[in-house]
Amino acid sequence: MVNFDFKNTTRIIFGKGTVEKIGPTLKEYGGSKMLLHYGGGSIKTNGIYDTVMKSLASSGINVVELGGVVPNPRLSLVREGIKICRENKLDFILAVGGGSVIDSAKAIGVGTVYDGDVWDFYTDKAQPVKTLPVATILTIPAAGSESSFSSVVTNDDGAFKRPLDNDVIFPVFSILDPETSYSLPPYQTACGISDMLVHVIERYFTNERNVELTDRLCEATMKTIINNAPIVLARPTDYAARAEIMWAGSIAHCNLLNTGRIGDWASHMIEHELSAVNDVAHGAGLAVLVPNWMKYCYKHDLPRFVQFAVRVFGIEEDFHNQEQTILRGIIALRSFFTSIGMPATLKEIGIGEENFQKIAEKAKKFDPGKGTVGNFYPLVNQDIVEILKLSK
Question: In the chain, where does DSSP find H-type helix?
């Protein structure tokens, strides 16, 4: 187990009816004039917007709105939000939506109080030291951004999708009411489930030894996601299953599960470039890639892949043939993704072989000093291309 310094400063307010608490809770944190940031308008049709606005008005909080966040949130909208916050002297940002809205809000927060270009933070030219405070109301369990120190933004110029990880951008508090996710379309629910599951998989595959506690925590989180996924898809208003999924998504990406271990993250870096090419949903791209990443690199650590197959999917271990056990586990993962409606090939999401070299090069440019992608099994350019070929 490696040394670690764990911190998560986000307050979680979880359960039925908690959205109604947004106004009084913001007042606790000194919010008086804030940016309300959201996506394409679904919160106006499912009633969440009205509940939020009523609570804010009753608490005397002035609101300036900025909607229009899309999946793979755009730098251009972030810059517009920064301009609005500065011109209106706003003191708080409330993100109502899923990971894209929250990531965009985090970028606006650090960009508003920075003299340079906010994109500097996403290209490692600078690190944020302060931010406008950001709070969230989660409506799409998926990315875990509601309790993470991460934000991912896509630069419209060149279609570069890049992350920022910094303690400054933890939301000050997040409201998680599982009922807000009842109206999600099945595909969006499934993409979120795929995303959160892979967040745990990326942490699980580590070269560190003696990490039994976090292995078991990861396995429990993965099994909870897998067990409840078919329930929420079959019965969208099943509160118990929605609650398990929503909380699992936050636990998956709050940094607890990677304490003492170094995760891989190659699949995420590659998928970022897939979604930068054609705006595929992040969870869908990951569902295509991850089983093929496993096929490509499982020989690096046979015991860990056997453990994944046996403990997470209940595959009976073949003590005479480890590879057979591993391949059955990979098939089980692929079958799970397919069962919830996720694509299995790049062709299904509109990405052809002509894009493979470009995707590989852009993924590597994420960390040009390192020259490889991933930590568990570092990938060079041709490795990435081969995984994409397995996925086509």
Answer: 22-28, 42-45, 48-58, 75-88, 99-112, 119-122, 186-204, 212-234, 239-252, 266-278, 282-297, 302-313, 322-339, 356-364, 381-390
Of 266, 273, 312, 311, nearest to 290 by C-alpha is 266
CA separation (Å) from 98 to 1, 176, 209, 373? 33, 11, 34, 27
For residue 287 the two structure tokens come to: 């569902």
- Which residue carries 């004039």 as its tokens? 33
- DSSP code for 379: B
CATH topology of domain 11-180: Rossmann fold (3.40.50)
Domain assignments of the chain as residue spans, ordered by start: 11-180, 184-390
Q: How far apart are CA 191 and CA 279, in angstroms?
A: 13
Q: What is the pTM of this model?
A: 0.94
CA 264 – CA 53 distance, rounded (Å): 41
Question: What digits encode the pLDDT tens for the residues 177-196?
Answer: 999 999 999 999 999 999 99
From residue 65, alpha-carbon distances to 39, 78, 105, 165 in Å are 11, 13, 12, 26
CATH for the 184-390 domain, from 3.40.309.10, 3.10.450.50, 1.20.1090.10, 3.40.50.1100:
1.20.1090.10
